[in-house]
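Extended Data, panel c. Modelled sequence:
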Amino acid sequence: MRITLLAVGRVMPPAIRDLVEEYRERLNHFVPTRVETVAEEKRDKGMTSRQAMDREGQRLLTRIPAGALIVALDGSGRMLSSLELSRQVDQWWQAAYAEWVFLIGGPDGLDPAVKAIAAFTLSLGPMTYPHMLARVLILEQLYRAMTLLRGVPYHR
């Protein structure tokens, strides 16, 4: 089993990159984890937000392995507490997917075609976060879920 975080975006500043790497390494103690960035669409004159989302979505879709559990991160998704997320993670674990893929869209969000194929849509809450911080938040919450499931004293 492996977790992949696919995020549309740009090169992260060192402080954010270090936090992403910190939680990726922590999560690696439970399950191999990788983080990939799909380049944010550069807007030509006349390019609409919809066109940019479509292009970003197509690039995301090409990187999702067949048979993977797809989780879209989107403000319209389900808001879960950390304990509820750990229960959901346990259900996904029991379903024995070979890979879980978490998707973070660009500035305009995820392409509707990408959201349509997701098995689960998760919201990190009603606030808007920079997409770079969303990477840190989901990795930390996945790590927290794993520690809850394994009885590791991290969650308090």
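The mean pLDDT is 94. This feature is highlighted in the accompanying rendering.
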